[in-house]
Amino acid sequence: MKIGGLAKRSGLSTHTIRYYERIGLLPHAERDQSGQREYDASILTWIEFLGRLKTTGMPIRDMLHYAALRERGVGTEAERCALLEQHREKVRAQVVDLQACLFVLDTKIAGYTGEDKRMREYEASIPERRRKPAGTRQAGAR
């Protein structure tokens, strides 16, 4: 597939695909007779994996290291595994931090929801004749 098709299917821009290829995250594409890049559909799996690494905060230098190991092939599995295990620990720590943040947000939202409910209950407890509609004034109070 051409670079435009890869961009559509992967969600990356053509600029990003060229950049990833230039720095070594993507293997250099074959070229057709007119010099245009021609990609195999199997590259989509690799791009998706890179996207996951990026989403989880892996630095590009570590992604490049992993890509270089992958390119070398057999015999690098243990090192690739170790790299991913180290990253997994960082992701787990991030998840714990995010869960703590989520708890704070949930607590804060519950507080607002509870206060709103308390205000409605308070307003409902005021006898109707004592309540004044919003925006009204007493007559003769000039």
Explain the layout of strands and helices.
Blueprint: H1 3-10, H2 14-23, E1 30-31, E2 37-38, H3 43-55, H4 60-72, H5 77-125
Antiparallel strand pairs: 1-2
Helix pairs in contact: 4-5
Strand portion: under 5%
Radius of gyration: 29 Å
Largest sheet: 2 strands, antiparallel
Mean pLDDT reading? 87
Distance between the termini: 80 Å
Q: Which structural category fits the helices and strands?
A: mainly alpha
- Uncertain runs: none
Count of strand segments: 2
Tally of separate helices: 5
Shape by Cα distribution: elongated
The percent range for helix content is 55-70%
Spatial strand arrangement across the major sheet: 1-2
Please provide the ordered H/E string of secondary-structure elements: HHEEHHH
Can you describe what's shown?
This protein is 65% helix and 3% strand. The chain has five helices and two strands. The chain has helices at residues 3-10, 14-23, 43-55, 60-72, 77-125; strands at 30-31, 37-38. Strands 1-2 form a two-stranded antiparallel ribbon. α4 (60-72) packs antiparallel against α5 (77-125). The longest helix has 49 residues, at 77-125. It is elongated. The model has no long low-confidence stretch (mean pLDDT 87).
